[in-house]
Amino acid sequence: MFSVTNERFEELANEAVASLPEELKREIDNVAIIVADQAPGRALFGLYEGIPLTKRGPISYSGVMPDRITLYQATICQVCSNEDEVKAQIRKTVIHEIAHHFGISDPRLSELGWS
Predict the structure, then answer these.
(1) pLDDT (average), residues 56-81
(2) Which residues contact 110 (CB under 8 A, 6 or more apart)?
(3) DSSP string across 56-100
(4) Is 13 in contact with 72 (CB distance < 8 Å)?
(5) Which of 79, 70, 80, 2 is nearest to 37 (CA)?
(6) Could you give the 3-state DSSP secondary structure of residue 46?
(7) How far apart are CA 77 and CA 83, in angstroms?
């Protein structure tokens, strides 16, 4: 287990988002990324909650709260032994959860090596 401060974890999460290709970042719509300690009852690195872009329509998607991607700091840090591993796991988790925002399923992410 490797521990980082909350501030450093948030910096690494911001770096992960900033490292995404510009054409991908431009398509992300109405998403908040937050950090929590652990998922209640489950060992998750991250969780996407919202309406994927593939399910949104001009009439059915208005006035809604932003989608949420939650990164679970304690769970991520538990499997890492240094900051580089934390950074890599955050980036992989951000990509995985943003993929859900784009409507990509867990089975497809597994096929692509992003689970």
Answers:
(1) 89
(2) none
(3) --TTTSSSPPPEEEEEEHHHHHHT-SSHHHHHHHHHHHHHHHHHH
(4) no
(5) 70
(6) strand
(7) 9
87-104 pLDDT, tens per residue? Answer: 999 999 999 999 999 998
The C-alpha atoms of residue 85 and residue 96 are separated, in whole angstroms, by 16
Query: What residue ranges do the domains of the chain occupy?
Result: 6-112
SS3 1: coil
**From the centroid of its chain, how far is CA 72?**
9
pLDDT at residue 105, rounded to an integer: 87
Nearest to 17 by CA among 81, 83, 96: 96
CATH of domain 6-112: 3.30.2010.20
Task: Say what the pTM is.
Answer: 0.88
Top pLDDT among 65 and 38 is at 38
pLDDT higher than 80, residue 113: no
